[in-house]
Structures are given as C-alpha cells and as structure tokens.
Amino acid sequence: MEPSPAPGELGAMLQAARDFASYPGLHSDDTVRQFLERFPLPKLLGALQSEADVPGMVETVTECLDKVFSSRYGASLLPSYGAFIQTGLLTDLKDIRKLACKAVLHLLDKAEDGAAAVETVVQHNLYPVLIKCLTEGDEEISSIILDAVKRLAEIPKGAEIIFPPDGQGSVQLGKVASQSSSLARIRILSLIAKLFTVSSYTATAIRDSNLLSIFEDEIKDRRDMLKTLSALEVLYELVEHPHSIVFLLKTNLLQLIIDVINDSSADSVIRSRAALISGRLLSSADAFTAIDQSCVTNLLAAIDKILKAEENQNTDEIESALETLGLIGTTTQGAHFLLTSSNVARHVVEASFDRQGRGRQLAALHAFGSIGGVDRQEDQMKLDGQAEEHLKRLVYTTAANSSKLSPSALLLSILQQDPDTRIAGYRVISGLVVREWCLREVCLNSEIIKLVTDPTMETTKLGMEARYNCCVAINKSLSSSHLLHEKSLSELIGKLSDAVRRGPYLTERKRVEARPVVVPAERF
Predict the structure, then answer these.
(1) Which residues belong to the signal peptide in this entry (predicted)?
(2) Distance between CA 375 and CA 366 in Å, rounded?
C-alpha cells in the first residue's frame, strides 16, 4: 500500500493536482518531472487509498495522474506500478478503474521498450482483468479497453498473450462470449473486429480460433433486432479491412447475409445494413475467385427483389440496394457479373434518370459511375464485348423509353439539375466516355460541352474537381478517337483543351486597372 500524504500537506497537494489537471494540453516531460519532484507518485497514489473524507479528492487526483501518465516520462514509470494498475482494474470505484484502464493504454502506447511493457502485463496478469472490465464496465471504460487490447496486439509479444501459439491462453474470447450477456458479446465482437485489422497474424488467429462464428451466431438469431443490428454494424466496419475478404468469404457469413436480405419479416434497417455488407464483401476482385457464383446470383436476386417491389416505399432500403450494386460493380469482375448474369443493373440505369426521388437518383448515379468504370484503373474501365453490349443496350433502351429519347439528352438533363446531382453526373460521364458510343453522344451535344467547360458552373471544391475530371476524361478519350479529326468538332476540341489547361479552380477574370478619379473643385 502506498504511503498516504500527511493531513497538513493533503490540501496543498490537492490544489496543485487540480491546477495540473486543468491544463488544457499535454504537459512536457520536464513539467511532469518537476511536478513529481514536489509530489512524488507514491504519495499521489496513496491519496487514492487514504480514508480521508475530502470531497472531489478521488476525481481530482485521478485526473491529475492521467495527465502524468499521458507524458512519456510518466508512462515510463508505470512498469513499477503494475500492482496498482491491477488493483485499480479490480476496484468498484469508476474513476480509479478508468485511470487504471488508461494507464494500461499509456503503458503500451508510449513505452520505448514494447517488450518491457508487455512483461508488465504478463507479470501482473492484466489481460484477463482487462477482458473482465471490457464485458462488465460501462461504455467509456469498454472503449478504453478496446484501444488498449488493440495496442497490446500491435506489439509482437503482446499478440501472443491474446492468441498464444499453442492456443491455450488463459482467456478464450469465444468462451467468454458464450458466457456473457448480449451487450458483452457485442463488445467481444468489437474487439475481434479491432484485432482483425492489426495484422495477418491476428486475423489468422481469429479464424483459427473460430471466433468469426460468433458473428454467425448473432446474425442467425434475429429475435432481438437491436442485438442483430449491433452485430451487423460491427461486421460492416470489419469488412472495410483488406484482410476481411479472404477470411470472411470462407465462412457462412455471406449466405447468412443473403438470408437476412431475403427475410421480409426483418426490419428494413437490418436488411439495408446486410445489403451494404454484402456489397463491401464483393467489392474486391478476389471475392469472385473465393466464392461460388451461385452465391452471387442468389445475392443479386435478393437485391433485385427489393428494387422490383412496387409496394416498397422505404427509400433508405432502396438507396442501400442501389449502393450495394455500385460496390459490386466497382471491379471489372463485379461489373461484368451485374451486366451479364442478371438483369439487376437495369434498376441502376433507370433510377439514374428518374427524378421521382432525389436520394434514390443520387445513389443510382453513383452506382452507375462505378459500374461504368470511373473507380477502376484506366486499362480496366472497359469490360469484355458481351458486358459492353449489355451496358450500351441498357442506356439506349432507357433513353428510348424516356421523354428525352437519346442518351445525350438524358446526360444533359442530369447536368441541368442541382449541384449534388451534377457532381454525380460528372462521375457517370467520366466513366462512360471511354466508350466510343458515349463519346459521340457527348461531343455531338454542344450544351453538354458548354456546361462541363464552364469554369463558373460549380462553386464548391468537390464540384469544381468533378467537373474538371469530366473535362479531362472527355478530352483524353477524344484524343485517341477518330472524332478528333472531324472538322465540325474543332471548336469543341478547343474549348475542352482550354478547360483542361485552366485547371479545376481557375477562371478567366479580366484584370481591372486602377484609374485616377478627377473630382471638380465645386464639389468642395
């Protein structure tokens, strides 16, 4: 037990601790060292263990110590106080437990010698206590623990505490999850998601420990909407990471996600999140070599069902379905599959030019740009012959069935709408214009060229850049096309060249010279 300060010095120490804690930024190492020379760490810790009944004392001292441990100098002292950290993690006093949690984070985050920091964790058996705090603490404490355990996993020896090479660790996350409340299981899932992103070692360990099955169990049981949605939210964050595609597609998760999308009794929020997860899973070229094509076909059928349902008035669900198709269409393989193995891509093209719902139209336009190749490398923008033919037919059929009659008139109508819709329209044109048929439609419509080359058209940085990128795409496609030599397009070609040369932000402004003003004497 640390020595408590004498009653006479307690008041002075608390005032100094209050002043130290109230400093708005981080203290320098020198400042921390000078403070601890006046009030040694054992006495500060002793104040927390004293029985003195001083209002606000625990809160003041814990805030002060957090400032101390936030410095590199203060963190370097923590290996000598592992016993205090362990006791703090086990206490029922929230302020002290929170300080102990943050002390572990500072210890791992600021230690110059990672191995020594890990040794402190091992010596005082802190990892099992951290997991206990994660499952039983409040939201604030569990959030700190998530960061601390992730930091532990980022240190090679620390990762072995969580996932021992022999698989016989003192804490089995799967076992903890099976014995915990639904809230604690979601926190375990959040921890798994964070650990998954650390390295291929931790991702492999998670797979080998069968921890991904916890996601499956939570998603299968859809009786508790909030629990299912929470699990899907964590999974949604997880599928953003590069490691996820390789591992997750080798589980039953995608099939379970499809089941959720097909479940008409499930809440639309749950189905929407499930759809976006599937889109993220299939937004990688590797995905189409890792799974059976029938699984993708089943997914597209589920998405098609959402978009075809005339009674579906849920705009969020429709927008999520369209966004999902855009994610799938990001890669060449995905775009090819959308256009040749299913009729689902027609929803994207038709909704892109349908002004019935703004959010729906924006989602469709964004997806259309992705399918058209705007997000792909230049040499991968165009698809094979069959897919390209389907794409062209979709656009011309949609135009023929509209009041505009031609693709160029449809594209022009997009550029004549509000700024957000125009930005999405620039994306679509930038992707489609690598195709000769679209390039001709654009170049033979002088109004389109007038709008995309107008430097005053957009007022936001995003809008200016989107318009400029569209100019560059048209100009580049034109430079390698036989249309370049058509005399009727010479003025247009000049406009595009000037617009590209100006850049995205510059506008031509006539310089106004200063002029002397002559004022008659009678005025005075």
Answers:
(1) none
(2) 10
Number of H helices, E strands in the chain: 32, 0
What's the sign of the alpha-carbon dihedral 361, 366, 369, 371? Answer: negative
The tens place of each residue's pLDDT in the chain, 524 residues long, gives 555 555 556 778 788 888 888 888 888 889 989 988 888 888 888 877 765 567 778 888 889 899 999 999 998 889 988 899 999 999 888 889 999 999 999 999 887 778 888 999 999 989 999 999 999 888 999 999 999 999 999 988 888 888 887 666 556 788 888 888 888 899 999 999 999 988 888 888 888 888 888 888 888 877 778 888 999 999 998 888 877 787 888 888 889 999 999 988 888 899 999 999 999 989 888 888 888 888 889 999 999 988 887 556 778 889 999 999 999 999 999 999 999 988 899 999 999 988 778 889 999 999 999 999 999 998 889 988 899 999 999 999 999 888 878 899 999 999 999 999 999 999 999 999 999 899 988 888 888 888 888 888 888 899 989 998 999 998 888 887 776 667 666 777 788 888 888 888 865 544 444 555 555 555 44
* Residue 383 near residue 339 (C-beta atoms within 8 A): yes
User: What does the angle CA 123 – CA 127 – CA 128 come to, to the nearest 5 degrees?
Assistant: 110
Cα dihedral sign for 23, 28, 33, 34? negative
Q: Give CA–CA dist 184/190, Å, rounded.
A: 10
Taking the C-alpha atoms of residue 412 and residue 405, their distance in angstroms, rounded to an integer, is 12
- Between the two ends of the chain, the Cα-to-Cα distance in Å is 90
- ∠392-279-234 over CA atoms, to 5°? 165
Q: How far apart are CA 390 and CA 441, in angstroms?
A: 17
| Per-residue buried b or exposed e for 494-507, using 16+ beta carbons within 10 Å of the residue's own CB | ebbeebbeeebeee
Pair 457, 418: CB distance under 8 Å: no
Length of the chain: 524
* pTM, two decimal places: 0.81
- Residue type at 2 in one-letter notation: E
What single-letter amino acid sits at 181? S
DSSP 153-176: HHSHHHHHHHS-TTS--S--HHHH
Question: Residue 398 has which token pair?
Answer: 């949609």
* Burial (0-12, 13-18, 19+ Cβ within 10 Å), 468: buried
CA 504, chain centre distance (Å): 27
Query: Distance (Å, rounded) from C-alpha 272 to C-alpha 280?
Result: 13
**SS3 assignment, position 51:** coil
Residues 162 and 152: beta-carbon distance below 8 Å? yes
**Scanning the structure block, which residue is given the tokens 């921390």?**
32
